[in-house]
Structure prediction request, 887 residues.
Amino acid sequence: MNARPLAALLAVGLGLATLPLMGLPAFYESFLYLIFSWVALATSWSLLSGYAGYFSFGHGAFFGAGMYTTATLAASFKVPFLWTLPVAGLLPALLALGIGAVVFRVRRLRGELFGLLTLAITFVLATIVLNTRIDGGPGVYLIGVPIPRLVGSPTGTVYLLGLALATLSVATAKVVAGSRLGLGLFAIHDDEDVAEVKGVPTFRYKLVAFALSAGIAGVAGGIHAVYVSYVTVGETFSITVPLYVVLMSILGGARHWLGPMVGAVLITASLYLFTGGQTAVLGRAAVALALILVILLLPEGVVPASLRGWRRLRGRPAAPDAAAVAAAATAASIDRPAGAAGRFMVEAPASPPPPAAADTAAARGLECVDVWRAFGGIEALRGVSLEVGRGEIVGLVGPNGSGKTTLINLVSGHYGADRGRIALGEATLTGRSAHEIARLGVSRTYQIPRPFANLSVLDNVALAATFGPAASGAGAARAEAREWLAFTGLGRRAAARPAELNLHERKFLELARALASRPRVILLDEVLSGLNPGEIASAVRLIREIRAGGASILFVEHVMRAVLELSDRVVVLNEGEVIAAGDPREVLRDPRVVRVYLGTRHAA
Amino acid sequence: MPSVTLLGQSIVSGLLAGGLYGLLALGLSLSWGLLRLVNLGHFALAFLGAYLTYQLGTAFHWPAWASALVIVPAFFALGVGLHAVFAYFRVTEFTSLLVTFGITVILESLIQWFWTADFRRFETPYASTSSRIGPLFVPTLELLAALTATALALATWAWLRLTYVGKALRASAEDPEIAAAFGVNHRAQAFLLSGVSAAYAGVAGVFIALISTLAPAQIWSWLGVVFAVVIIGGLANPVGALLAGLLIGVSESVTMAVVTPAWAPLVSFSLLILILVARPGRA
Prediction:
């Protein structure tokens, strides 16, 4: 990771910190403090809402909770002001953890619904504060609270605290963006279900981001309490905080660590230009109009748009490491299959077990025993049992609606089974969450490719390597990802966005992503459908190579030629039940199977 | 424990206040549910309608119904115009929130520019009339508002259920591509719906002018409650919006009577939170 931006940030922070010593007038201290405060709020908001896409309108609740924590502790309990700040951060963080623990379990509560929920929580909190002894109605005065003089005046102290918090929150945003947590959050933003299946502990990551975001907002509130020195419910829990925070982040670019900061500076400064008198009213309208124009013309935000413009000006390709990627791709393509395929089964015993031990659990690979699953009144799976031995390729066929994809969804943990047991070696998979199953070594592809739309092709694959069973650090994961891209022939597309790929390339991206985690079992859901004969031939070759690496493969397929060519065994599903299993050629000649596919007349 | 009369009276006023919530929620619910546009500007439009009613009434002595005859069609046109902008820029659900927030601030500023931030009250001879049913008072204007809300909700429901345009709109909301493949011209209908939704804001505005005291900042005070109503009622469900409005209205006013007015917001928002967590599939 590049440490230069962090160093630059720190340098700017230190530079600004010297201003009060140089006798900056109090007016400017207070103006700059307001900017710092909004920078901290907007940046902290983007940790959950910008990165992971969980749009919160509840930032005012955490800001307000922090404000009232400091106000209550300092005014009523005479706790020294600086000591109240950690508590002002901790309480909102705990509040966020509590809310998240309930809300993040509800799968469909995303997008604007999450936003409204958090807004409602703000109003509930405001009502409670207003009607209890925390406030009680008249507001809380902090006039008598002593503010330590770090430099010169009390306003200097507030200025420095605001600056420190703003710097800290921007640095946090930068560090998170480059970390495992950040990669997971970006993936959650694009497709949470897939992120979970690729091994991202989505629930935990969302909680961490939410708590971090609320904690920073709370400290900002604590500092703001002494800045305003008179805290009221009406001002604190108003709609202003959540709306401004959202606007600033979106304006600057909520998915970029610098975006909220830039947005906060722009909006705070332009609002400050119009204060007092009738011009203030028109000024506000002008700011709103500018905002509308920016959002309509630069929907991704000012920072990402300018960065792109800057790169184009300098004639560099869009992705920062495109050159390195291309170099790695050519290098990797020379010793392509052997190098990549040999990396499977890192935890496997060095020598194959003797035949006598063939039915010990470890040798059995994937095992489904009497698995049932119903959706409403429809029984999608009715007592399915099947096995995929280690290094075996099992074809799963059956007419549409026979339960093939449902079975894959159950094995990968997307749904739970109603009854029955699914196991991989000695580990039971049923009852585990999808990311745990992924880490035990199960990986899958999607029939309709579901890449993370805002991550580069390389990062899509690197994510799987980062969160898979052989979890690795950022650098190693990217190196690994490049190898798998080369293996699937996508080396040259590493820097592209998934939307730029054609169907065949997207199918192979699915495959690369499934392989990059170095799984023990790979579930392939119709990887061949929609491909032309040449593409099918190369895919079949790839699947053979994957098996040669030692992984077990369960593949759902309608392309019968490929099924016959690849499968060691075939299992036929019909209406949720296994109707035949065994040698591919025999099974496909079985009258029952023919009847299911072609109707009774042909079976005779 | 309050008396039965007080309780009865609070239920009546809750139902009437809820009618206005439902009326405001109606347009919001339609554009959110069927066009996937979250229109914060709806509140500002309603208040613009209210201020226009006030202006026409006090300066030119127009009766409210005459103002309504002008405002409602004009707002329909305004809604169509706004949608032209949204459609041109392909505004999505999230950006719609931000753009309409901007529109709200602009309208709020303009209202404040023309009518100042002071409170305005539209005095009409019928403002204080009410009828008496047993021990209960029913204020005429509030009753009229609630009845209008009911009529519009039912008419909208019938429109969506029974006419081709309604069915086409619902089909497009579900899957725009499939609907288009079956020949549904979503663009034309989106303009129509956007106009209707804005016209409803106009109707609500006329009643707001008649019933309550106006101030620009009040645009924001309705926001939370009405969004709660929209969600509880279910998106694009006119009758649901009305019923949810009545439910919230009654629960608020009973809380005010039984506990204290200050605790009233707790009821509606706790209700919203519970519904969201228990049945997120509604919206």
Summary: Chain A is about 60% helix and 10% strand.
